Each structure stands twice: as C-alpha cells, then as structure tokens.
Amino acid sequence: MEVVHIIIIGILSCVAMDLWQRILKIIFQINPSDWAVVGRWFVLLITSGKLYNPNIDSEQSIKNELPIGWIVHYSVAILYSLVFFIFYKFQILNASFLDGIVFGLISVIVPWFFFMPILGKGFLATKTPSPLMACSLAIGSHFVIGLSIGSFFQIYGY
Q1: What is the DSSP letter of 31?
Q2: Helix/strand/coil (H/E/C) assignment for every residue in 39-108
Q3: For the segment 115-153, what is each residue's pLDDT rounded down to a tens digit?
Q4: Domain locations in the chain?
Q5: Largest CA distance in the chain
Q6: What is the average per-residue pLDDT within 41-58?
Q7: CA–CA gap between residue 148 and residue 92 (Å, rounded)
Q8: CB 128, CB 122: distance < 8 Å
C-alpha cells in the first residue's frame, strides 16, 4: 500500500504545483513551465544519449514532446515523493507540512544545479534574461510541491 500512497502523493503534489503555476499565470502573467522542452530533452537523452543540451530551445520539435514532457514531470514528482518517504522511513524527516517545506526548499537544488545547466540556462539560471526571477519561480514551485508532499503524507497517517 505504501507504493500506492507514494504514487498518489507524487501525483497530487505535482497537481498542486501545476495549479500554483496557473495561479501565477492568471495573476501575474508568468508563463508556467514548458513541458514540451522537457519532453524534447528526454527524447534526445534516450535516442542520442545527449544529457547536456544547451541548445534545446533551438532543437527541432519532436513528435509528442509535450505529452512526454508531462509524463516526465509527473514521474519526477513521484520520485520526489519516494525520496521524501525514504527520508521519513530513516527518520530524517517527519510527515508534516513543515518538513515538507524543508524538503521542497532543499529539492530546488535539482533545477538550479542540474536541470537549468543541462538545458543551457547556467547554474542558478545565470544564462537567462532574468536569473533572479527563474530561481524565484523554482523556489516557489518546489515550496508548493514540498509542502504538498509533507502534508499528504501526514494526511495519509504517516
């Protein structure tokens, strides 16, 4: 049953993050994450072994890149849920909204130091037009997903 909870919590937390990004779009006209680019990157990773792709935005579109990007996005959220669960099992974190926030804020290391750089955006988005904005949006999204993961684990009685 724990596996089912991990998957459900990952999905629900990802939905919360996606809703957060839609709220930012409605209120501040800030575009949500472009999952088509993630799908394109993933397909190129699988087909050509190209992990580092600094020109991903100028790569030719790939059939079904958007749904593939969404699948990758939700799969990563499930992975975050699994990592939180492992930390919970080893008593590093508790199933709570506070520990969820801590987890979410720590998890922002992934986009800042892995995903942004491999897509040519630089560490901490330094190669983007607005690094502070890009980093702040990552913090907000990871805050929401972390808060959701911690809260949902608490709701499920962990």
Answers
A1: P
A2: HHHHHHHHHHCCCCCCCHHHCCCCCCHHHHHHHHHHHHHHHHHHHHHHHHHCCCCCCCHHHHHHHHHHHC
A3: 999 999 999 999 999 999 999 999 999 999 999 999 999
A4: 2-32+75-155
A5: 46
A6: 95
A7: 18
A8: yes
